[in-house]
Amino acid sequence: MAYRGKRTAGGGSLLWAVAAVLVTVAVLMTFQTAPPVQTPPPADASGGESSHISPDLSQPQGSDDSAIPSMAPLSEPYDFSQPAPAGEAVDNSYFADAAFVGDSRTDGFMVYSGIGCGKNLTSNGLSIFRLDSKKALTIDGETYTLLEALAQEQYGKVYLSLGVNELGYHNDQGFYNSYCQAIDQIRAIQPQAVIYIQGLIPLNEDQIMASSGRDYLTNEHLRTYNDLMRQAAQEKQVVYLDLYSEFADENGALPEGASRDGVHLGKEYCQQWLEYLKTHTVELDRLYPDGPPAVQTVGPDTSTADGSALE
User: For residues 200 and 225, is the Cβ–Cβ distance under 8 A?
Assistant: First the structure.
């Protein structure tokens, strides 16, 4: 009987072990077949549910054109109402295809600035009123008007600097009209050129009176002309260069050390003039992304004015 009792006890232990295994297997199967726990979406900063939405993979991705952002323009249109902004300096080779139209001031710039290139189309006493009538330039023994001389070659830039000689003229409206007409005429001759209107560099009136006594050469009238030139540049959509602000001292005048006669600049200031031009350039396609403005047909200059010319 004792032997049977031991067998019975041993058999019970075996049954308990088998039962434990079966329970463990059942528990494991329960965890494998149970649905995953749903995690609620995170709340946003306002206390509501997050606006994140999982993509619907049943729909083709990228098929909705409205989801594609439109391309922004590469740059804002050029603002012709403002002077050219400063930028990274170019080197002197930028001016290799430039024509410089002006009077004796511009001639001094071409000689003393160190530019080393560009076409010198200047004449002492040259006036905006007579660009198409005065035979002011001599090329290879032939005399030409400024516009005739400008038409001899094709240029990528035209720098126009005129107005000091005209300060003796008391015809501001005629000055404005002549500048607008000159821009049209230059554009007709050089339709692919960037036209730069250079504002007038200030004068030193005390030096002028001491050297020549020309009392009509005043900064007050010069500033009026600069305003008119700036308006012409805006109307005709060409580049205006604010050289006045570059050179004016605290009194709005040309510093005494800049010139011997109050008008024509010394070498150091001609070099400063060049540095300004090198940091104020604009490309043609920046000005006219859709192409240059249409060329207007203009007649001869019929402006008349009385006044003295600065030689």
Answer: yes
H or E stretch at 239 = strand 239-241
Higher pLDDT, 22 or 268: 268
The residues, any chain, with a CB within 8 Å of residue 124's CB and separated by 6 or more, are 103, 104, 107, 311
- pLDDT tens track for 204-245: 999 999 999 999 999 999 999 999 999 999 999 999 999 999
Do residues 102 and 270 make contact, with C-beta atoms less than 8 angstroms apart? no
Residue 150: count of CB within 10 angstroms of its CB:
22
Return the DSSP state at 124. T
pLDDT at 161: 98
Q: What is the crossing angle of helices 267-278 and 104-112, to 10°?
A: 90
Rounded to whole angstroms, the Cα distance separating 280 from 229 reads 17
CA distance 38 to 15: 40
149 within 8 A of 121, measured Cβ to Cβ: yes
The topology (CATH level 3) of 93-287 is Rossmann fold (3.40.50)
Per the CB < 8 A criterion, the answer to whether 231 and 181 are in contact is: no
For residue 134, give the nearest of 148, 121, 119 by alpha carbon.
148
200: amino acid identity, one letter:
L
How many degrees, rounded to 5, is the angle at CA 309 between CA 254 and CA 298?
Answer: 105
Please name the residues in contact with 4: beta carbons below 8 A apart, sequence gap of 6 or more: none
Q: Residues near 224 by Cβ (< 8 Å), separated by ≥ 6?
A: 172
CB 280: neighbour CB atoms within 10 A? 22
Return the pLDDT at 298: 55
**How far is residue 230's CA from residue 247's CA, in Å, rounded to a whole number?**
17
DSSP string, 156-193: SEEEEE--SGGGG---HHHHHHHHHHHHHHHHHH-TTS
| DSSP element (H, E) containing 30 | helix 2-33
* Amino acid, res. 58: S
- Cα torsion through 26, 29, 31, 32, rounded to 10: 180
